[in-house]
From TrEMBL:
Catalytic activity: dTMP + ATP = dTDP + ADP
PANTHER family from the UniProt entry: THYMIDYLATE KINASE, UMP-CMP KINASE 2, MITOCHONDRIAL
Gene3D superfamilies per UniProt: P-loop containing nucleotide triphosphate hydrolases
EC number, UniProt record: 2.7.4.9
Name of the molecule in the record: Thymidylate kinase
Family: Belongs to the thymidylate kinase family.
Lineage: Bacteria, Pseudomonadati, Pseudomonadota, Betaproteobacteria, Burkholderiales
Domain of life: Bacteria
Role summary: Phosphorylation of dTMP to form dTDP in both de novo and salvage pathways of dTTP synthesis.
Organism name: Roseateles asaccharophilus
Keywords, alphabetical: ATP-binding, Kinase, Nucleotide biosynthesis, Nucleotide-binding, Transferase
Length: 204
């Protein structure tokens, strides 16, 4: 039996973490066994890589390679076994974040990103991706009230503008997979949009 693989994307402060809890509860109420995980991270090795990549200074290509190294371990150790066991895997960020942040934000070319995604994923792709989209200034205001910035979150608005453009490009390339959610509205109004997509994609 093969489970479902669903990812959640958007710039920092979009409200992903806030919504994912409700989404996990929605699937659990249907009787699904849910594996809730995140990138970079999700396994002991990938969480170690996360701590390095979010805190240690490094060049953009090293950052990209560590993101994909963490992803490879996450896929092999957690995501693929969970899917094989029939679980619903909910992943807070996946490869679209590399295209948005290392591609859009840092400016690395698709000729570097595309082959890495091919090798590392080896055909495994989320069946559905929620893209929580909002203006970067609004996301920055939310973050300011919520937490201390890590190395990537400390980037300026123009970085997040480019990252947002990266997500938009990914959505345009895969319109069946990526669903854009207007994340600029209140949490219950975001949830209403998410729930409508879930009900339509996964009817009772
Ligand atoms: N729709 C919303 N409107 C206003 N504030 C929100 C909304 N969703 C989340 N927040 C707040 O914004 C901050 C960042 O939200 P979070 O869910 O951690 O974002 P992310 O996981 O996308 O970085 C938190 O303080 C959260 O309470
Ligand atoms: C998965 C991934 C994340 N990132 C970045 C986006 C975020 O700034 C950071 C960690 O993501 P996230 O877990 O969403 O941060 P937080 O828990 O603080 O909301 O890593 C990349 O730059 N590339 C990637 O491939």
């Amino acid at each position: 039996m093969t489970g479902r693989f669903i990812s959640f994307e958007g710039i920092d402060g979009a409200g992903k973490s806030t919504q994912i809890a409700s989404i996990a509860a929605w699937f659990q109420a249907r009787g699904d066994e849910v594996a809730l995980t995140r990138e970079p991270g999700g396994t002991p090795l990938a969480e170690d890589l996360r701590a390095l990549v979010l805190n240690r200074p490094m060049d953009s290509l090293t950052e990209l390679l560590l993101m994909f190294a963490a992803r490879r371990d996450h896929l092999q150790t957690l995501i693929l076994p969970a899917l094989a066991a029939g679980k619903t895997v909910l992943c807070d960020r996946f490869t679209d974040s590399s295209f948005a942040y290392q591609g859009g934000g840092r400016g690395l070319p698709l000729r570097m990103l595309d082959p890495l995604a091919d090798w590392v994923q080896d055909g495994t792709e989320p069946e559905l991706t929620f893209w929580f989209d909002l203006p970067p200034a609004m996301a920055a205001a939310r973050r300011a009230g919520a937490r201390e910035a890590d190395r990537i979150e400390a980037q300026q608005l123009d970085f997040f503008e480019r990252a947002r453009g990266g997500f938009a490009a990914r959505a345009e390339k895969a319109p069946q997979r990526v669903v854009r959610i207007d994340a600029s509205v209140a949490p219950d109004a975001v949830w209403a949009q998410v729930q409508a997509v879930l009900q339509q994609r996964y009817p009772a």
